[in-house]
Amino acid sequence: MTVSFGQRARAGIDRFGPLCVGIDPHPGLLDEWALPQSAAGAREFGLRVVEAAAGRAAFVKPQVSFFERYGSAGFAALERVLAEARASGTLVIADAKRGDIGSTMDAYAAAWLTPGSPLEADAVTASPYLGVGALSGAFELAHRGGKGVFVLAATSNPEGIGLQRSADADARTVAQRVIDEASAVNAACVADGEWGSVGFVIGATVDWHASGIRPFTPVAPILAPGFGYQGARPADARRIFGAMAPAVIMSESRSILSAGSDRIETVIEEHARSAREQDHHE
Amino acid sequence: MTVSFGQRARAGIDRFGPLCVGIDPHPGLLDEWALPQSAAGAREFGLRVVEAAAGRAAFVKPQVSFFERYGSAGFAALERVLAEARASGTLVIADAKRGDIGSTMDAYAAAWLTPGSPLEADAVTASPYLGVGALSGAFELAHRGGKGVFVLAATSNPEGIGLQRSADADARTVAQRVIDEASAVNAACVADGEWGSVGFVIGATVDWHASGIRPFTPVAPILAPGFGYQGARPADARRIFGAMAPAVIMSESRSILSAGSDRIETVIEEHARSAREQDHHE
């Protein structure tokens, strides 16, 4: 039987703690790492982070845009990074924020979630402007193959507040709607007490009350950007996420990557430890 | 001085009419066209549509997901299709629905809108779940380079209704918010009477009243899927879009592509004519 992504994520957290290491070869970081602004530079950057994260963190999260900017050569670089990460046993969350409908969405899901496809990852992030229901093909493919989908629910950037806090006639916000609709998918597919394949993206610095999000029992992992450079500390996780804290994957990018190639193992080790210690303070 | 995408789009509509030919090499169509389910099949499909559209339609719209499913090889195929379409003088709208924040969004914009980049298109579609303001880097790059961005506003798929009709404290819906915020960007950059670089995606079968969208004076093109196979007819454009009808780009995919490789020139010719005739009935 296929083990669900949720169960694989939970096993990863149990073993290494909740740290997720971003792989963001953006122009400034390539410069800092003395790598060229090219697909080859992005590949070297990604492979180095994958090597440093292996055995130290449960998750890596390549940011697809920084590969896409180099076109097909960038995607070839990303394929190498994804394959090496998966071979090393680290779970790979492709941060692609894809979102479409029908057969178009199915093709995105096929790209990222089909076992054996060139861009195979363990999970992909998805954007629900066209509705959570429009992502159903991705959920089905994920469920069948032990893969995951993280749906954007509430993000901490100020530009998103107006949209995500808009509400329906029952005063349910867009952010809460996404959580409700994605939770319903998990409820239909997951045994009691297990984690499902459909997770959420909720920024660590989101104001839950203002965003109209009610605390919920986690039935899937929550991918939480905003740790490290953006201000949230692992020790804050319990305060921020309450009973959901054990389901939180703490994503850090710049706070780790700015250490540079020489010090990255040490920094991942330290940040993974402090993310784990949050767990022990539960 | 760089000619804006809006002005280029208007010139295209004036010359060929408002038809946009989708390039959707999905599995079923590749079968119908007797092409392999591979990057090479998608490339042949795309090049054939580009050849048939040249001199007959102002716009083609490759659906990125159907190339992405083949990974880097699929993107190499898409690069060929984009380059051939641009060389033929047809305006290319890459239907990618990308959406992110900050430097991540900038990298997507760089991928699709930078002159000389491997995936260079004339315009790209964008998804605003993270807020229209989060797309500002793409708007700036578009404005500088004569490129366009079509922001998803209101789509006709049923799954998106709950989110897009959610409203803020002033009863302004998400769909209307997107239109307002993107219109403000155009207003800041465009001379009176000209079309700007930031267009909208509004499905031809959207219920405007129920979606809380107020008619607006078009200051940029509106990309309208839903013509052809999905039910809207060009003759309906005036009724559906009212005073905005002259700004509408009518996108058709399956209704043209299902003609097959042999008949596609004829069908594009016919559909372009009936789209133009709608214009003459204004």
Your description of this structure?
- 2 copies of one chain form a homodimer.
- The first copy, chain A, has 282 residues and is of the alpha/beta class.
- Chain A is built from 12 helices and 8 strands.
- The first copy, chain A, has helices at 5-16, 27-32, 39-53, 65-68, 71-87, 102-113, 136-145, 161-164, 174-189, 237-241, 254-257, 260-280; strands spanning 19-23, 59-62, 91-98, 123-126, 148-154, 198-202, 222-225, 248-252.
- In chain A, strands 1-2-3-4-5-6-7-8 form an 8-stranded parallel beta barrel, surrounded by 7 helices.
- In chain A, helix 3 (39-53) packs parallel to helix 5 and helix 3 (39-53) crosses helix 12 (260-280).
- Chain A starts with a helix and ends with a helix.
- The model of chain A has no long low-confidence stretch (mean pLDDT 94).
What are the key terms here?
homodimer, alpha/beta, 8-stranded parallel beta barrel, globular
User: What would you call the quaternary organization?
Assistant: homodimer
Task: Briefly note the structural class of the backbone of chain A.
Answer: alpha/beta
**C-alpha-based Rg of chain A, rounded:** 18 Å
What is the terminal separation of chain A in angstroms? 32 Å
Mind describing the biggest β-sheet of chain A?
8 strands, parallel, barrel
State the largest interface.
Answer: A-B, 61 and 61 residues
- Overall 3D form of chain A: globular
Ranges of chain A where pLDDT stays below 50 over 5 or more residues in a row are none
Number of helices of chain A: 12
- What is the share of helical residues of chain A? 40-55%
The whole-number mean of residue pLDDT values of chain A reads 94
Number of strands of chain A: 8
* Order of strands, widest sheet of chain A: 1-2-3-4-5-6-7-8
Give the DSSP E fraction of chain A (strand runs of 2 or more residues).
5-15%
Order of helices and strands of chain A: HEHHEHHEHEHEHHEEHEHH
Catalytic activity (chains A, B): orotidine 5'-phosphate + H(+) = UMP + CO2
Family (chains A, B): Belongs to the OMP decarboxylase family. Type 2 subfamily.
Protein name (chains A, B): Orotidine 5'-phosphate decarboxylase
Organism (chains A, B): Candidatus Microbacterium stercoravium
